[in-house]
Design brief:
Layout: H1 24-32, H2 34-46, E1 55-58, E2 63-66, H3 68-83, E3 85-88, E4 91-94, H4 95-110, H5 132-139, H6 143-148, H7 153-164, H8 173-179
Antiparallel strand pairs: 1-2, 3-4
Helix pairs in contact: 2-3, 5-7
Length: about 180
């Protein structure tokens, strides 16, 4: 990506250029978007895509490693995250496009064509659909109350089980509306 915007990947600001791969600028730019990977990791654990037994400890370098199959599953979660849309400058863009635009901004700043790069936009939106209020609403309903709101028996049973569990879950807008909870 850096070569596409005429930046030298070996010249970084935060990371030392003597780093193993000599891609210091790549590592600098990844810091701005590390939260995307962190959020994907949380999502992978909450959805049970990853579990603790998918990792192993290597005592020689004090790191945890993924099992091969777990790595494949996590990469799929990451791929979904980076391909998801984000509102940026009046358009919906994929995160990889936003990251490329941010690298371009940095390049324009370094050659004096931009007074200040803006690395705070787009800001992350971290909103859960399964917050405490939603869980309390679901657990406070009886089967008959759910039916009166137009929520089917199997849907209600599924929501009830998920609301009791600590795992994250998604509520579709139609069901959310019938529950009477807003974003």
């Amino acid at each position: 990506m850096e070569h596409a915007v005429n930046l030298e990947p070996g010249v970084g600001f935060l990371h030392d250029s003597d780093y193993e791969t000599k891609q210091s600028l790549v590592y600098d730019l990844q810091e701005l978007f590390r939260w995307l990977v962190d959020l994907s990791m949380i999502q992978a654990f909450e959805s049970k895509t990853l579990e603790l037994h998918d990792f192993y400890f290597t005592g020689d370098d004090y790191r945890y490693r993924f099992e091969v199959e777990a790595k494949r599953r996590f990469i799929e979660v990451l791929r979904e995250r980076f391909n998801s849309g984000v509102n940026y400058r009046g358009r919906v863009l994929k995160w990889d496009t936003v990251i490329e635009q941010k690298a371009n901004e940095l390049g324009r700043f370094l050659v004096g064509k931009l007074s200040t790069p803006n690395f705070t936009e787009p800001a992350p939106v971290l909103e859960r659909m399964d917050n405490r209020m939603v869980r309390k609403t679901i657990l406070g309903l009886s089967q008959s109350e759910a039916r009166e709101r137009g929520i089917g028996k199997s849907t209600f049973h599924n929501l009830w089980n998920k609301a009791e569990d600590a795992s994250s879950f998604v509520l579709y807008e139609k069901v959310r509306h019938r529950l009477g909870v807003t974003k």
